[in-house]
Design a protein that fits this description.
heterodimer, A: mainly alpha, 3 helical TM bundles of succinate and fumarate reductases, B: about 250 residues, alpha+beta, Fumarate Reductase Iron-sulfur Protein, Chain B, domain 2, 2 domains, binds iron/sulfur cluster, binds FE2/S2 (inorganic) cluster
């Protein structure tokens, strides 16, 4: 070893691969990607609240205007929709990593407890949300794929018109089966967040007696806001509140 | 009082297990849970039946040998105590009590209710000590440690290595044990020079045997020493730091 540095050891795996190979590293990746996804889920819900703003004097719906702004975001520095696609790429990578880490950790955890206890196991603090993360996660993934086909690509929507977000939402949510699937999936999103948005603090090592009691509140409120916001859309459309 | 025991019997690590039912009659409420087991076993010996194996040593909650699952709760459902600190007055006449060993790949069953916890020793060997030059013991108070810090380190040091945290965890994760063993050294000045080296070595060894933490918090509720999961967050943070920071410039063994 010299004073200027250590020679790189040959045959060592690249740093990030090395880090990700550990379970604690995977949990960190789950937390970081979870934060990215949480941010998206919130902004997505908040942006869609514009459905309640109706149309302007020219008859352009606020939510359609907002959709156009998303496509133009980053102009003139970036070409039209470039930002949107970069953003979609980041989301896709985050979701893939989140799922891969969850899958790999599930395998490790199954191996660690091959034989279950025979006596009924009474959990003291683990809750419904924390014990069903894998199930809620899988159902949410199925929902997200359907949701993209329904309202982004339009292939699963009975009457899809590109750029007319309000029209597409109405076309989708007036089908009871779709609306019910949407509502159930969004409640599960909330349940998933209820555990995930707390758990990420521990995985990142963000622990401080000054704010520890707030971590669970943060998760509960975040989950509640997302559920209320998202579930309000089909309900309001049914109630005829969306003009 | 009379109770019925449903005891997990398993002849060896590979043998299939089964439950056997034994009656425990004329048990006094003042008996400890282990005394009750001793009495049942004595009666089995008298009847020519092989007694069931159950570990214990100190019988005062400090050695960590006596961990078993009692009715689906590690060390029974009394909070903050080991099996040896549980008394029969916590049960009622006529109860059926199910006894099982810890179930985890990292803790193979040796016999009946006794498991092999040497995987914990492997974790300690990986870094649960400080490398000091040998010689005479340093004077007490040579290295000043603030009282508040010493208290937290001591809370971590209360871990008796019983394995209830692993047993309680739906993932058989050993995060609570490992983080406690890390914190008792990493909180105090003596532990600093090897802090990040230690966390990587011990976490990596832990992961060879055990599952991964999903932050249920069951370990904390099961721990006879009420070790807090705050130490798990501290371990995670140190592990990430050990990987991302320039350890040489942190004054750490790289
Ligand atoms: S952390 Fe608690 S439950 Fe785990 S080994 Fe130590 S004393 Fe036992
Ligand atoms: S026998 Fe030592 S802790 Fe129970």
């Amino acid at each position: 070893m010299t004073a200027t540095g250590t020679p790189t050891k040959k045959g060592q795996r690249p740093f990030l691969v090395e880090f990700y190979s550990s379970a604690v590293g995977k949990k960190w990746v789950m937390a970081v990607t979870g934060i990215i996804i949480l941010g998206y889920v919130f902004v997505h819900m908040f942006g869609n609240l514009k459905i309640y703003l109706g149309a302007d004097d020219l008859g352009v719906y606020a939510i359609d205007h907002y959709g156009e702004w998303l496509r133009e975001l980053g102009e003139p520095l970036l070409p039209k929709t470039a930002f949107l696609w970069i953003f979609r790429a980041v989301m896709t990578v985050s979701i893939v990593l989140h799922i891969h880490a969850a899958y790999a950790l599930t395998i490790i955890n199954r191996k660690a407890r091959p034989q279950k206890y025979q006596a009924p196991r009474e959990y003291l603090v683990a809750n419904y949300a924390s014990r069903t993360m894998r199930w809620s996660g899988v159902i949410i993934l199925a929902f997200v794929l359907f949701h993209l086909a329904d309202l982004t690509i339009g292939s699963a929507n009975p009457d899809f018109i590109t750029g007319e977000i309000r029209h597409n939402m109405l076309a989708s949510f007036t089908q009871p089966a779709v609306a019910i699937f949407y509502i159930v999936a969004n409640i599960l999103v909330g349940v998933h967040i209820f555990h995930g948005a707390w758990s990420l603090f521990q995985s990142m090592g963000w622990n401080n007696p000054r704010f520890n009691p707030w971590r669970k509140w943060f998760a509960a409120v975040f989950a509640g806001v997302v559920i209320i916001g998202n579930v309000s859309f089909p309900l309001s459309i049914w109630a005829g509140w969306v003009g | 009082m009379d109770v019925t025991l449903k005891v997990w019997r398993q002849d060896g690590p590979e043998a299939p297990g089964r439950f056997e039912t034994y009656e425990a009659t004329d048990i006094s409420d003042h008996m400890s849970f282990l005394e009750m087991c001793d009495i049942v076993n004595e009666k089995l010996v008298e009847r020519g039946i092989e007694p069931f194996s159950i570990d214990s040593d100190c019988r005062e909650g400090i050695c960590g040998m006596c961990g078993i699952m009692i009715n689906g709760h590690p060390h029974g459902d009394q909070l903050g105590t080991a099996t040896c600190q549980l008394h029969m007055r916590k049960f009622s006449d006529g109860d059926e009590i199910v006894l099982e060993p810890w179930k985890a790949t990292g803790f193979p069953v040796i016999r009946d209710l006794v498991v092999d916890r040497s995987s914990f020793d492997r974790i300690i060997e990986a870094g649960g000590y400080i490398t000091v030059p040998t010689g005479s013991a340093p004077d007490a108070n040579m290295v000043p440690v603030p009282k508040a810090v010493a208290d937290v380190a001591f809370d971590a040091a209360a871990c008796i290595g019983c394995g209830a945290c692993v047993a309680a965890c739906p993932n058989s994760a050993a995060q609570l044990f490992t983080s406690a063993k890390l914190a008792q050294l990493n909180m105090v000045p003596q532990g600093q020079p090897e802090r990040y080296d230690r966390v990587v070595a011990m976490v990596d060894t832990m992961e060879e045997f055990f599952g991964s933490c999903t932050n249920h918090g069951e370990c904390e509720a099961a721990c006879p020493k009420s070790i807090t999961i705050d130490f798990i967050a501290m371990m995670n943070k140190d592990y990430i730091k050990a990987k991302f920071k320039n350890r040489r410039l942190l004054g750490q063994k790289a």
